[in-house]
Structures are given as C-alpha cells and as structure tokens.
C-alpha cells in the first residue's frame, strides 16, 4: 500500500447530467447538501459559506470571496468538526461549473493547505465521496446508498 | 468520464504507475514524470492523454508550465457503482482472509 503526505493543492472533477443552475442550487441549499455532504446543512451567500450539523453546530465555515452563480464560487474552508483541524489556518475551496453539451463539468480545487496538514489529510478522501454523491443525487434523485 | 475509458486507462501498468507517482506528489510537469520512467517523452505524453480522456488526470496551466493533477473521482464512481453496491460484503470477507494469511507469513 502506497502512502503519501496529503497534497496542498487537490483537484476533483466530475461530469454531471444536470444544468449549471441545478448544480448551483444543489451545492448552496441545505435541503440538498444534507443528502450528500456528510449530512451537513450548507448555506452559501455572497458573504459566507456555512455548514451546520442537524443540531445547528458549525461543521465548516468560511468567507466567500467570489460568488458568480451558477458558474463560480470561491470560499474559505475551516473544518470545525474536529479540534485538530479547527485549530489550523483557513484553506480555500474553488468551485467551477462549466456547461458541456447537456452535461456540467464540476471542478473543485481545494488549495492553500500548506499550513493545514490535518485538514488536507481529512478532506482528501471526502471530496470524492461528496462529488460522487452529488452526481448520484442529481442524476437519479436518490442519495448514495450506504 | 464513462466507465469504459476509466477501465481502459487503468488496464495498463505504466498508466497505473503514473497515477501512483501523482498520488505521492500531485501537480507535476511532464518533464518530472518522464524523468521517473524508462520511456520517451512522446510515450509518456500518450499515456497522460489516455488518463486525461478518462478524467483521471486533470491538467492545469500555471504560468508557462502544465501541471498534472490526479483526479480520484472516477475511481470513486467505479467503486460506488461496481464494488460498494453488491460485492463489498463478499469481497471484504476474502480481503480479511488474505490479510490474515499474509500477516502470518510476513
């Protein structure tokens, strides 16, 4: 088994059969996000990205620096769900949603992780799960099983 | 990013080796990747192209350089579609047995 130090720039990409508008709604609306984003209720405004658990506790928070529905969203990322990651510096997440002939190409870049090794390690497997779940939800209307 | 392209891309040892190199350190140039393989620059480019077509490698321009990033999502999709759904319990039992037997001989 090969192991690696978690990367300081991580890129995740997936094609989804949905319009950019549908994808934007699914990533910025808590009624959608709790079905594929580890149960978190995420709200995104032009100012802030806020992910809460079912009890209303902060899971992930950060300021929004670019807000261009339905194609581009850039926000800070602070993982508050774990004391070790909560103590680390904010990193950055950029969402790009491109229209590709009836499909949308969704690219998530998580970078500025140089001072946040625990967060880098923690999100490395998570983003694939989130994007796979987002695709399944939008294409079938159902959350991923199990 | 259809399954056929991903399976085809993964069916070659050099391409799997390239993915492992990127897993160890992501965001590399063609020159860096080429230096670790006994293969012509053209050969490495061809393999990278197959990986890009399958969505397993995402190229990014940074200044004058083209960096290659590993995109694990297609592998996750295959996992969710072909492994998780109906084989995981059976596979897990065999994997446990394999680990147990191999640990004893290690």
Describe the structure.
The complex is a heterodimer of chains A (146) and B (106). Chain A has 146 residues and is α+β, with helices and mostly antiparallel strands. Helix content of chain A is 28%, strand content 37%. In chain A, a hairpin with a 2-residue loop joins strand 6 (91-100) and strand 7 (103-111). The two termini of chain A are 25 Å apart. The longest helix of chain B is centred in the last third of the chain and has 18 residues, at 88-105. Chain B starts with a helix and ends with a helix. The mean pLDDT of chain B is 89. Chain A binds chain B through residues 2, 4, 7, 9-15, 107, 127-129, 131-132, 135-136, 144-146, and chain B through 1, 20, 23-27, 55, 58, 60, 69-77, 80, 84-85.
List keywords for this structure.
heterodimer, A: 146 residues, alpha+beta, 7-stranded antiparallel sheet, B: 106 residues, mainly alpha, 6 helices, 65% helix, globular
């Amino acid at each position: 088994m090969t192991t690696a130090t978690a990367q300081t720039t991580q890129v995740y990409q997936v094609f989804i059969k949905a319009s950019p508008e549908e994808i934007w709604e699914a990533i910025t609306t808590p009624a959608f996000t709790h079905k594929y984003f580890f149960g978190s209720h995420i709200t995104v405004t032009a100012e802030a990205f806020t992910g809460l658990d079912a009890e209303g506790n902060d899971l992930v928070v950060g300021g929004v620096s670019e807000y261009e529905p339905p194609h581009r969203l850039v926000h800070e990322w602070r993982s508050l769900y774990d004391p070790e990651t909560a103590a680390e510096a904010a990193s950055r997440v950029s969402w790009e949603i491109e229209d590709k002939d009836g499909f949308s190409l969704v690219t998530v870049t998580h970078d500025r992780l140089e001072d946040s090794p625990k967060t880098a390690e923690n999100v490395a497997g998570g983003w694939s799960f989130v994007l796979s779940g987002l695709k399944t939800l939008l294409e079938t209307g159902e959350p991923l099983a199990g | 990013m259809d399954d056929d392209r991903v399976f085809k891309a993964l069916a070659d040892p050099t391409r799997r080796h390239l993915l492992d190199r990127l897993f160890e350190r992501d965001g590399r140039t063609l020159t860096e990747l080429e230096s670790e393989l006994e293969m012509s620059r053209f050969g490495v480019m061809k393999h990278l192209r197959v990986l890009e077509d399958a969505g397993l490698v995402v190229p990014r321009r940074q200044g004058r350089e083209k960096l290659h990033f590993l995109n694990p999502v297609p592998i996750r999709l295959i996992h969710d579609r072909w492994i998780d759904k109906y084989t995981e319990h059976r596979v897990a039992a065999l994997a446990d047995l394999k680990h147990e037997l191999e640990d004893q001989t290690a």
